[in-house]
Design goal:
The protein is α+β, with helices and mostly antiparallel strands. It has one domain (about 70-270, about 290-395): 3-Layer(aba) Sandwich (Beta-lactamase), CATH 3.40.710. The protein contains 11 helices and 16 strands. The chain has helices spanning about 30-40, 75-85, 135-145, 180-185, 190-200, 200-210, 235-245, 255-265, 300-315, 320, 380-395; strands at about 5-10, 45, 50-55, 55-60, 65-70, 90-95, 105-110, 150-155, 175-180, 270, 275-280, 285, 290-295, 335-345, 350-360, 365-375. The strands form 5 sheets. Strands 3-4-5-11-12 form a 5-stranded antiparallel β-sheet, with no helix packed on it. A 5-stranded antiparallel β-sheet has the order 7-6-16-15-14, sandwiched between helices. It has a two-stranded antiparallel sheet with strand order 1-2. A hairpin with a 6-residue loop joins β15 (about 350-360) and β16. It is globular. The two termini are about 25 Å apart. About 50% of the residues are buried.
Length: about 400
């Protein structure tokens, strides 16, 4: 498969079927035995060696095992074509069935060594999380602070930088005011900085970062997911900046898709998988099933965030990408919940453009993440690529 390079070598043992078992319900010894058995089935799996055969991506192993991957060939191909057509310096897209954790597409591209630190862009956890981290801050505010989704906060400035003065109160006559819905939809840095400064202790923010998988080993089946690091500084201003997505937090595209998936499932993060089944001599020795990984937020909070993310697409920072010049949606009849993220670094210059999405909003089927890393001259951003990927998925209906 083009633009994919993943290798997982694991000590062999006896194989077994892998069923739907919540992690919390497994005893330690049973959990270890099941993980060892699954590892044996997936010993030596290498997605780079997958070939398209009989309508699916497969890998033939030297010992006779046949590994069938989860990727949808049409969606995979069309997503690859988006990045190659626009010659994106570095990019990745991960599409997950939000109800099962099945990875439907996993695409990555690196045309410029200056645009990314690793060839495996999808699993590179060094890019800044940028404003995607506002989803974690909003979750902490809704569940631990005295903040509701309709809470209105007044602010001034803060669009490109955050200063200590942005943390103080101002009169509504001296600035603008917005609810948390509007703050998320328009990615208003000053509101997130001010609210986090007033309502969240460092442990609160760090705790919710961990709930969403930061600073945590996320596991995986035949993929190794590097740890996404979130630092919450003790310094008041730097902590407020971190809460708004100004550096201090890092994220891989694969992990970003998992965050979106958890919101799609009412706060239940599933363990994503790329191997559908493994057979030996015609017998199925491994079959993937949905597996619960962690509870990120309550169902009520997840619902509130999805509604706010829908505002991002209908009226906020993603509106222009999802509508034509006359305001007509590119995905008519399909409501999309999304969150943008943008941050620019220097030495070398990298313009990070993020988008995570869940669709349809009221009955989610898929969660996706897109990261595009541009140089000073660019042709496409993450929101533009996401629209095309969603069209590719829903066109099949």
């Amino acid at each position: 498969m083009r633009r994919i390079h993943l290798v997982m070598g694991i000590i062999a043992s006896s194989c077994c079927l892998w069923g739907l078992v919540p992690l919390a319900a497994l005893a330690a010894d049973a959990d270890a035995d099941a993980a060892t058995a699954q590892a044996a089935c997936l010993d030596g799996v290498d997605i780079e060696k997958a070939t398209l055969a009989r309508g699916a991506y497969r890998q033939s192993m030297p010992d006779g095992r046949i590994v069938t991957f989860t990727f949808d060939p049409d969606l995979q191909r069309r997503t690859e074509n988006i990045f190659s057509r626009y010659k994106v310096p570095a990019a990745s897209a991960v599409v997950i069935n939000s109800r099962t954790g099945r990875v439907l597409a996993l695409v990555q591209q690196r045309l410029s060594a200056d645009a990314a630190d690793a060839d495996d862009v999808a699993f590179d956890a060094s890019p800044p999380a940028a404003s995607l981290f506002k989803l974690i801050t909003a979750s902490a505010l809704l569940e631990t602070g005295d903040v509701e989704i309709a809470t209105k906060t007044c602010y001034r400035g803060g669009s490109s930088e955050l200063l200590r003065s942005h943390l103080g109160d101002i009169s509504p006559r001296d600035g603008a005011c917005s609810t948390l819905v509007g703050a998320l939809g328009h990615s208003i840095n000053a509101i997130f900085a001010k609210l986090s400064d007033r309502h969240l202790a460092p442990a609160d923010l760090l705790g919710y970062a961990k709930k969403f998988g930061f600073n945590t080993d996320l596991g995986g089946d035949a993929v190794s997911i590097p740890v996404s690091v979130a630092e919450v500084p003790e310094d008041r201003l730097e902590r407020a900046r971190a809460a708004a997505g100004f550096w201090h937090t890092h994220l891989s595209p694969f992990h970003a898709a998992m965050i979106a998936q958890s919101l799609a499932q009412g706060g239940a993060m599933l363990r994503p998988y790329v191997v559908d089944n493994v057979t030996l001599s015609g017998e199925t020795i491994h079959e993937a099933r949905p597996q619960f990984a962690a509870r990120t937020v309550s169902e009520q909070t997840a619902r509130a965030l999805l509604d706010a993310m829908a505002f991002t697409v209908s009226h906020g920072t993603a509106r222009r990408a999802f509508h034509d010049r006359k305001g007509r949606p590119y995905l008519p009849g399909i409501e999309v919940s999304g969150k943008t993220g943008t941050l620019t670094g220097a030495s070398p210059y990298r313009a990070f453009s993020w988008f995570v999405a869940v669709a349809p909003t009221n009955a989610p089927e898929i969660a996706l993440s897109v990261l595009v890393v541009n140089e000073p001259k660019w042709r496409i951003k993450a929101t533009d690529a996401a629209v095309r990927i969603l069209q590719a998925y829903f066109d099949r209906r």
